[in-house]
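For reference, the entry.
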Amino acid sequence: MADAQPEDLVETVEKKVPDVLPTDTGTDDDNDNDVIHITTDKNEDASANVHHMSVPQEESEIKYGLATNAMFPSHHHHHPSMGDLADMVLPHQVAAKTEHFLEDVLEEIAQVLATSRRGRGDLATPDFLTPLNDLILSDLVNLVSPVNTRNRILQIGLGSVVLLAFAAHTFPSYQAFLAILAVVGMVYRNRRVFYAYDKPWMDPTTPALKRLPMHVPLRLFASEANARRAACLPQLVAMTTTTTESTTNKDEESQLAPNIWKLDDRNPETTPWKFQLKDTVEDALEMVQSSTQQNNSNHWKPMDVPSNWMMRGYDQCIYTNQVYPIPCNPPIVPHKNPTGVYQRNFDMPDTWLHDTGNSSKDASSFALLLHGMESACYVFLNDQQIGFTKDSRLPAEFDITPALRSHNNTLTLVVIRWSDGTYVEDQDHWWMAGIHRSVEIVRRPQGANMMDYHVHADANGRFKVAVQLSCDANNNSNQTTARIVARLYQDQQLTPDGSEWKPGPLVWTGSKPVVQTEGAMMIELGGKLAQPQLWTAETPHLYTLTVTLEENDSPGNGQDKVLQVESCRVGFRTVEIENGLVLVNGKKITICGVNRHEHDPDHGKVVSHESMKLDIEILKRNNFNAIRTSHYPNDSAFYRYCDYYGMYVCDEANIETHGFKPMGNLTHDATGWENTYVSRITRLVQRDRNHASVIFWSLGNESGRGRNLWKARKELLQIDSSRPICYEGGGAMVEGTGLSELTDVICPMYPNVARTVGLTKIEHDERPIILCEYSHSMGNSNGNLSWYWRYFWDDEYPRLQGGYIWDMIDQGIRQPDTKNGKGFYFAYGGDFGEAIHDRQFCINGIFSPDRKPHPAVAELKYLMQPVEISLPVPTIDKTIRIAVSKTSAGEITLKFKNRYAFRDLSHLEWSWKLTSNRSTADVASGTINLLGDEERESVSISLDRALESIRNLEKTKSTKRGNSYFLTVTGALRNATVWAEAGHELVTEQFPVEFFFDKETMTVKKSWVFDPVGQSATLSVSQDDDKITVFRQVGATTKAPHVDICKKTGAILSIMSRNNNNLLSPNQSLVPQYTRAATDNDRGGMELMLSFLYPDSGLEELWTRVYGIATFSYYFRWKMAGLDQARPPRPECKGTQVIETTDKHKVDVEAIVSITKGDNTKKELVRQKLIYHIYMDGRVLVSTKVIPRPCLSECHSLPRVGMSLSLDKSLYRIKYFGRGPFENYDDRKAASQIGVHETTPKDMAYHYIYPVENGNRSDCEWVTFTNASNGEGVCFASHGRDEKGSRSSFHFSALLHGSSELDQAKHTCDLEHRDNGEHPIRVNLDHRLMGVGGDVSWFPCVYDDYLVKSEKEYKYSFWIIPIDAGDDAASLAREMS
């Protein structure tokens, strides 16, 4: 083997390693498919092996694993994974011991060599470095800096022995004395290591004590009718009361599962739960174990369950992105460790006592089920220690039968905030301890021995049900007459909350007898439906499966006794990878996905069913079809919602070690951390494998590479090989970026578009490509999305199958706004006084914490829309050109391409409208008759109904430029769905339309004449030391100021209305503007990365000295140059010149302006030439030339090139012709349609949680600001052509807060509440405005096309035109263009 080449090694494995899955006869005969397996383990304690249910051959044929397409893309049958090589060399144990180190190394070498065979594909690291990095470097790091207590003690011991031996050899020299001091110092420095020994919350080899094995959710129904009804409810049903009067409870579903009692109480005033917070774990355990604890009633406070105690005023909310909130010293955690003690007294429910006919327990067994707590928990019942668990996001179940009493029970849960589990839960979200999911007591009646069941149903209609039984020889159940009966019904859940459902017909049934034995038994049943309705995210058809354990009370009498019933919803679907594509039911899918944290702005990690439902509904409404449960398993109910609504789920294990450098430190430590990794990954699969919505398993996130993940992957494949595995290691160099051998799908995070396309060109790697995270949505972000989706939809790149946006929800915590005295704001890291935090890095969702969409959501919705609408002959600008005759306005032909994989377009109804630049009203509109049953379809639209309206508009158009027209096509839901109302728009596309008219003479009347005082009016000029004033004069006596220009700044000081009112707010002017309120992406650069990686190290200055500032953020460079809002640049006029025409109808004022640093007026940043062409009729044409100075060259891009002004507060009625209606920027405007839009300053703004630049509108031709009462106002209109020869346009924003206010604010509460008409309007008119970027938020990422190059000169001009209510701004702007 030592000399084997990669190809030889793989061939050897293929030939010699047997198939790990059971074989099958290959027949569809259901009755021949039963398999019985016997095991004896009952508890999942620290030493327990991981046990798995057998997977039938049909499931293995749906193949997915490392050993199928991922490693052997040319083969289509099942192969063992390379991890099985170790089985040929040494005996394999799930919990690896130190003596098996060689086995682990051999397994890693096999994996690396196999990866080299197909092409590792990591663009950053050559293949020959992989063994060095992964097998030597990381292992050496673990030896030098061990991350488990046993190895730490071994290291200390060996070091002490060496030093003491040296001391003995050199005694009595001073070297010996120093050696002894070194031993004492080493022991003292590592005293916490000895403290941690034998404490389970600091022992990663002990994921739990006395925890029962994981299984799918069980409800132990007493009847099949109840089980069927409960399957069509999203929640896991349970009793919520303890009295017999519960039978009259209106909450009927709580009675469906009489063997499950939910102990939750969300009302803090009536809750029976009591709470104390202790400073240390020892204090909490001492209190619990003390006989006097009950006497300290004054220390107990009521606490609602579930809840996070920091959301109830205890302890401290902490947010970090990757840095650990405690000293990184695994597995040790601080001695001062907030520990919450929850206690509840209870009697057993009366119904349970009445079932036995007396007031004592029957022969049932009982378990306590904790669905989720953070991060470790001891369980005590009636002063007896029941067990211990870690893993904050998966259920833990404990047998409480020996300690349970009929009455007067005291349940105590000791929840520990920091544990060794903290080190693998570093997941870029709030650290919130407490019980965040339900607490239940489960009664298992005598004979209810169904412990688990697994169903797999594929797209061919084949399905298998595997049922695990615990056959206890000591119970009295007559197992010789027992049997398992499985039934499949076509039930329908009609409403999301399950309040309405429709029982359907029985479509299949099967049964198997139970053979009496000891230990555990596995029974498998199988069948096939001839033409099943398949489950997909587009067509989420579900069946109801019931599994019944029953026995015959009296053999021969035909009466069966139901012992236990379980149920779940089943979707028939197949997930596989073939020819480099992820296929669902044999068809390629595109992942329109989002990463989603569990977050509630008021309750932290406690997420209600309403919130889960809302999240999925708003995603479906915006064309999302996939969710990655970043970065941990979600509440069980969430998957039931995903099954029901139709969402593809990448189900992620609760593992992330982002705070380590390298990230794979723990991943390589098999002697200490393997149990932690394997248990978290396998238990996830064991809980969620019955959900059709789960199409990918994820091993976790950003935890490097190493043997623990390889072991876990191998164990996962033994449980379930029907789904691909995804994993992104996070380390850009040695640890893989979604391309390692651990993943079946290339799933990197945050590659730019060029690198994303480059992934398709890696030799010998044909895996599908799905970005696990892309487009970091931090604040005003998500630029460049259109580039990603251009390639995701491109047939030339079929392996690019989409990705998951980061992320869905801004993780803000709602706090009252005490500054403004009303409302609220959302807090982020550092707002709770925590010393360690990562500021607003948790504010990176596309929805606000209260689920309001960011403007970027509209962009995503458009780019991911399920139908492509195009022209038969594509053009660059998508313009439609039509010849109009006397009798016809022509016809438009459009092509519709169905992007759905599994449905036609018949559920959509289509309409069109023709709009113009003249008004918000439609020129014409109509419907489209689209059959919708073809993948591609062409449709013709007649515009004859628009003919008369078009002619009327043409007769009143500008004589200089014609009108502009736009055809907009929309597809909306024909009927209401469970996630949207009828008429909800899913598809939209806009096309510019050019009409060419025949030779018929059209009378065009002039649309605008402004001569209020007649041709007798003239202009005159006066000057003093401060300003130049241009007057409008009628006759010898009437003289009114027209325009004032400041000689010190070169700025316009007044814009006069026709009634001689200054439309600028007092003491304001029109000035050049080159800065903006920095966005989060503007602030992202090397200095941010250095501060994340090496906080407070001062490396930024050293880096700039060595490497310069080229990799630093835009904001850093702007600040260095003097283009920041803290010290805004100043305009200084170097000279003016006035030129008057002989007829006195026009005056030109020329000003040379120097833009200097705010704190150093001697340093010129920009030289600008301004010419104001002032006309007698009130118009002003502003022309300017901008010359950036060489000192700005290192900026690479200016924030903007434009002008700013402050308009009078009364001019809040805004109308413009440009892109809208929502905020857009040059690199995020694909969804923004061109038209006439109406808005207000308050509506234009989007209040990002961390205030930044916002509210921009792009590609504008004109904008008007008018007084709502009299229509008086001003119009700004573009003029001339841009550098490319196209008609010029501009950006504009009009807000109630200026850039400096936004830049200084850290929260929305730092901004004064302002309403329309109460505050001046801050207007920006920009010739160029830098894009927002968005690939990442920690490195400059605005693409070249969207930069405002600092070495380039700019020329632009625009009109300022006073208007009244009757003016046609559109024609006026065209006349002036």
User: Anything to note?
Assistant: The CA atoms of residues 1209 and 1320 lie 4 Å apart. The two ends are 79 Å apart (CA to CA). The first helix runs from residue 6 to 16.
